[in-house]
Structures are given as C-alpha cells and as structure tokens.
Amino acid sequence: MQQALKKAIIDYLDSHRHAALATVSEGGSPHVSTVSYVSQGLDICFMTDPSSRKAKNIAFCNRIALAVTEDYQDWGEIRGVHLSGTVEWITDESQLKKAQKLFGQKFPQVHKYLDGYGVAIDIIPFLKISARSIDYLDYSRGFNHWDTLEL
Fold first, then answer.
1. pLDDT for residue 1
2. What is the pLDDT of residues 25-83, one digit of tens each?
3. Whole domain around residue 69: which residue ranges?
4. How many domains does the chain have?
5. Helices (H), the chain
6. Which of 14, 36, 140, 148 has its CA 20 to 30 A from that of 121?
7. pTM, to two decimals
8. 98 SS3 class
9. Which pLDDT score is estimated for 63?
C-alpha cells in the first residue's frame, strides 16, 4: 500500500507544474503564493527572490504547507496532493545545480525572463521542501477520500 501510494504521489507531482505554497509571517498572518516547482521523487524544489514575501516568511518560520491540484468540474474526478513540512535554501552546490538544471528543462521559458534581468539560472537560489506528511486525494475512490503518507 505505501509503495503504491508513494508512486501515485510522485506520478501526480511529475505531471503538474504549479502549486500553492502556504507560509506564515512574523506577525502570524498566513500567506499563499503560487510557485512553479520541479520534483524528483518526493523532493520538491522551487525558486524565489530572497527579498520576496514568501522568502521573508520562510526566514521567520520554515514550516510550510503545499497543495497541487487542478480545476475539476466533476468532484468525482478530484485528485491532488497536499503536504506539510519544512523548507530550506539549497546550500549544497551539487543539489543546487541539479535543481537549476531540472527547472530550466521543465520551464525553458525561464531563460527568456531571466535574460531580461541580465542573469542566468545558474546564479538563482532555490529552496527544497522536506515533506513530513503527504495526503493524496482521490475522489474517484469516494467523496473526500485521501490516503496519507507519513515520512
């Protein structure tokens, strides 16, 4: 069961591109941002400007929640991934290069946008999410059905 669940989660993450990332500000206010992400297995990485609101919130509190889903018309088709965990800046050079390369491959348009700022992806910082608990929603198995993978 756990291997099948893990595979379903990985397949779902691999087939999507954007997620809603929830952080908390120093004042305790929740904040949700859309992030473009890359994943390899259960490792999820994204980039952001270190001066962004989400980066400032992460500096205060690195606990996050993330949701990946689509806009389903038929509730019986709803699938999604919800996870909670922590996030850290990637400091290991080989992990950072890997995240940058994967991101550039998944989102080739990023190069055009970065060129506009006169920078290349190889200087962009990335963050990595370490999930603690992942819920996989699958309403085809019944309304409000989900299975949880604890890590």
1. 72
2. 999 999 999 999 999 999 999 999 999 999 999 999 999 999 999 999 999 999 999 99
3. 2-93+125-150
4. 1
5. 2-14, 53-60, 93-106, 110-115
6. 14
7. 0.93
8. helix
9. 97
C-alpha 13/C-alpha 41 separation (Å) is 9
Q: What is the 3-class SS of 32-92, one letter each residue?
A: EEEEEEEEECCEEEEECCCCCHHHHHHHHCCEEEEEEECCCCCHHHCEEEEEEEEEEECCC
Q: What is the CATH number of the domain that holds 20?
A: 2.30.110.10
Length of the chain: 151
Average pLDDT, the chain: 96
Half-sphere exposure of 140 (CA within 13 A, CB side): 5
β-pair partners for 85? 64, 131
**Residue 99: burial class (beta carbons within 10 Å; 0-12, 13-18, 19+):** buried
pLDDT in tens, 84-138: 999 999 999 999 999 999 999 999 999 999 999 999 999 999 999 999 999 999 9
Q: Is residue 118 part of a domain?
A: no
DSSP, collapsed to helix, strand or coil, labels residue 82 as strand
